[in-house]
Design brief:
Helix content: 55-70%
Mean pLDDT: 92
Order of helices and strands: HHH
Number of helices: 3
Number of strands: 0
Radius of gyration: 18 Å
Low-confidence stretches: none
Length: 63
């Protein structure tokens, strides 16, 4: 992630813009996921668990 300082931009604004970019591109999430090896089967299981959790959330909200 790279940001360049704009004219009249303070350091705080620059850092805030950088942090927004990091969050929007999910850099920290990707980094945390890649810190440990997870097999393909575990990835599939986690994907199913998330889908089931999201499905239950939608049902409980009444959608």
């Amino acid at each position: 992630m790279k940001v360049e300082r704009r004219d009249g931009e303070t350091v705080e604004q620059l850092i805030r813009r950088f942090n927004k970019g990091v969050v929007s591109e999910r850099i920290t999430k990707t980094f945390r996921e890649k810190m440990h090896f997870v097999s393909k089967s575990e990835q599939r299981k986690e994907k199913r668990r998330r889908a089931e959790r999201n499905r239950r959330k939608k049902i409980s909200k009444g959608f």
